[in-house]
Amino acid sequence: MPEAPLLAPPVVLAPKRTRRRLPLLAIFALSWLALMLATALLADVIAPYAYTALDLRARLAPPIGFGGDLRHLLGTDELGRDVLARLIYSIRTSLLIAFGATLIGAAIGTSLGLLAAHFRGLVEQAVLALVDFSASLPFLILALSVLAFFGNSLGLFVALLGLHAWERYARIARGLAIGANAQGYAAAVRQLGATPWRIYGQHILPNIASTLIVSMTLAFPEIILLESGLSFLGLGVQPPETSLGSMVGYGREYLTRAPWILLAPASVIVITTFCVSALGDWLRDRLDPTLN
Amino acid sequence: MLRFLASRLFRAALTIAMVVTFAFIVLRLSGDPAQIIMGADAPPEAVVAFRAAWGLDDPLWQQYFRYFAAILNGDLGRSMRDGRDAIDLVAERIPATLALTIPALFIKLALGIPAGVVAALHRNSFIDRAVMALAVAGFTVPSFVLGLLLVLVFAVQLGWLPSGGQESWRHAILPVITLGVGGAAVLARFTRSAMLEVLGQSYIRTASAKGVPWGAVVRNHALPNAAIPTVTIVGFMVGSLIAGAVVVESVFSWPGVGRLLVVAVANRDLAVVQCILLLVAATMVVSNLVVDLLYGVLDPRLRAAPQGAH
Amino acid sequence: MSALLEARDLVRRYWMRRGAFGRATEVRALDGVSLTLERGRTLGLVGESGCGKSTTGRLVLGLETPDGGQVAFEGTPMPPPGSRAWRAQRARLQMVFQDPLGALDRRLTIGSQVAEPLLIHGRPAGAAEVAALLTEVGLREDHGQRYPHQLSGGQRQRAVLARALATSPDLLVCDEPISALDVSIQAQVMNLLMELQARRGMAMLFISHDLRAVRQVSDRVAVMYLGRIVEEGAPDDVLREPAHPYARALVSALPHPGRRGQRILLSGDPPNPADRPTGCAFHPRCADAVARCRLEAPALRPHADGRLVACHLAHAPAPQFVEMGAA
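Output (C-alpha cells, whole complex):
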C-alpha cells in the first residue's frame, strides 16, 4: 500500500506574523466569492422577480445593451422568465449544493481516514480498498449509475456529490494521524491517559485542519463543475428548481436566438471555479507547502 | 517480475469484483427489482410470480452468487426499452465514441506534454505563464460550456461547421477539439509540475554540474524520470476513452456510449447502465494494469526481479 | 521491600516483510529482558541505537504489550493498553521524550498543555497549579502563555517535564531526554532531573546512549546489546571495570584524559536485529570470542561483586580477560 507522503506536520501560523500584501488575484477572487455568497444569502431580497414568474409579453427579450430594457437587465428566456432572477436563484442552489457536498465529503473522508489510523488492521485495509475502488473509476460514471438506480432527489444528489473526493481526505487524514500517533504530540497525549475522543477531537483534528481546508478549496470547484455538468445533462437539479448547470442546459435550446440565457450562467460557473481554484492555490502556498 | 504481474492481476480482478458487488448492492438498495422491472402498475400476482421465477425470495447470498455467475457468463440483461441485449446496444455505440476520443487523445498528448515540458524548462518565462494561464482556463471552463461556445462561434456565427450529429468527419471536428483542448490543459499542468520536481532533484544538478550539456541532461535524465508520473495520468485518460465523452457527446448529439448512458440513466434503463458501468470499470482496470507494467519498464526499482543492483 | 515495577523476560517481536510478497522475517527487538525498578531509585539503560532501549521503555510503561514475559506494577500486571484502567494508571507512570518539540502540540500554549493531564485525570487544573508546576521545572509563569515554537529547546524539555510531573507519577521514564539538546543545556536538564527526583522521590528509568549521563543520575546501570541486557551493576563498578567485552568497548570510547589503555574499536557489522548472530549476539564483533560464544548464548549471571554479566568469558578466571582488555 502506498503510504501518503504527507507525514510532515502542517505548518501552523504563528499568532503574530508580518502580513504580506494580498496579491491582486486573491483580492479579486475574494471579492467575487463574497459577491456570490451575498447573492446566495440575499437571493429573496435582491431578485427582481420570482424565478418562476412569467412575463409572456417579453419572451426571449435581450439583455440591456443588446436591445433590451431596464425591466429585464439580463433579458428573459423562452417563457419570459427573468434571466437575472433565475441566475440569482441558480447561484444559491449551486453554492448550497457545492457547500453541502464539500462538507459531506470532508466529513466522511476524514472520519474514515481517522478510523483507519486508529484501528489499523482490518479496518484500515477495508478503508484503503474503498479508496482504491473510488480512485479507479471516473466519478461521473459512478454518479450517473447511482442516479439511474435510485432516481433523483435533491438530498440524494447532494449526498452523491459529497462522495466526490472523499478518498483524498481519507488519505490525508490517515497519513497525518498515523504520523502523529507514531511519534508526535498525539502519542504524548495518549500516554497522558487521554481518551481517543480527546486525542482526535482536541489535538489531531485541529492540527490537520489547515491541510483539510486546503483540500476542500480544491474539491469545491470540482463539485461545482460536477453539479453543473450533471444538471446540464438533465440528471441533476430538476425543474422547477434551477441551478447554473440546468440553466445552461435549457438555454442550449435557444443558443441561436437567445444566447444570453446560456452565457450568463456559463460565465458565472467559469468565474466562480476560477476564483475558488486561484484562492485554493494561494491558500495552499501560504498554509501548507507539503500539499502538492 | 512474475510475482509483480500476479499481484497486479489479482488487484485488477479484485477491483472488477468490487464493481460488480457495488452494482449488486446498489441494485438491491434501490428497491424491489420485481416492482422496478414490472413497473408500478403491475398486478400484485404478476409481481409475486416474477419474484419466484427470478429467485428473488432466495437468501441474498444465493442471489449474489447467481448474479456474479451470470455476469461472468456475459449475461448482462436486456434493455427495458426495446428488449435487446444490453451488451449489444452498448457494443454498437463503441466505435462512435472511439471516433471522438482517440483523435482527442492524440491532441491531448501532442499539445499537453510538449507544452508542459517547455513551460517547465522556461520556468517563469512568458511561455510558462501563457501555458499555465491556458491550463487554468482549461480546468475552469467545463466541457459543455467550451463545446457550446465553439458551436456559437463556428456553427452559429460563422457557419463553418455543423453543430451536431454524426453525418461526416466535419461533424467530429468540434467535439474532438472540445475534448482535446480540455484534456491537453490538464496534461500540460501535470507534466509541468512533474518536470519541475525532477529538475529540482540533485542528480540533475550533479549531471549539469559535471559538464553534461543541458540538452543531454534533459533528454537522458529529466524526461525519463518525469515520464513516470505522467504515464499515470495518460493511463487514466486511456482508461476513460469510453467514459470520457459523456458530456461532450450530449452537447453535440453524438450517438456514442456516453449519450447512451445519459439516456439510459434518464429512463432508468438499469441493464444498460450496469453494462456501461462494467465496461468502463474493465477498461479502467486494464489500462491501470498496463500503466503498472509500464512503470516496471520505466522505473527499474519497481522491478522485483533480482537482476543485480546498479 | 517489594519493587515498584518488575519486568520479567520481556520479548518483543516485529515482523518485517521484504518486498510486497516476500516472506516475513521475525525481528526480535527484545529477547528476554528482566529488570526491577525500586521506589525512588534510578535505573540507567545504555546501548547503541536499535538495541531495544526505547522498546524496553515503552513496555515498562505499558504503552505496548510484550509478546512474552510480563510487567508488573506494584505486583499487579499491566492493564491492556487503551482500557479504562490503563488510562487511569497513566497518572502514575509518565514519560519524557527525546524530541520535546514533537511531543508538544504546536497549536496550544504551554500552560494549557501542562494543565492537560490534570484535566484528564479530573484534578484541579487552575492557573495556580500550572504556575506551581512551571516554577518547579525552572520556567517562569508567563512561559505558560507561549507556544512551543517560542521556547528554546531546553525550555521545551522543561515544559514536557512539567506536564509529566503534573499528576505526581511514581515512575518517570526518560527516553534520551537530553540527546536532542545543546550540550550547554544538557547539564542543566540533568541537574533538574536529579533535583526533582530527590524532591519528589519518584523512580526513574533513564534511557540514553550517553554513558556519562547515565552514570550521573543512576543508582544502577544496565547495558543492552541487541535486545538483551549484557551487564548490570552499580554505575561505578560498570564504568571503572566493565566485565562484558561490549561494555568495555563502550567505556573505552569515553574521552578520559588520565586513563591508561587505548580505545577498543569495534570491528564487524553494526548489530542488526533482523539478522541476529547465533550464540552470543556480540561474538562477531568480540575480540575475545571463543568457539563456545558462537554456539551458546550466555545467561545473565551474578558476577563476583554482585553485578550481573552475560558473557562466557567474564565468568572465567579474572586475569585472563584483563590482559585482553586492550585489543
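The interface with chain A takes residues 61, 63, 82, 87-91, 94-95, 97, 99, 102-107, 116-117, 120-121, 147, 149, 160, 163 of chain C (CB under 8 Å).
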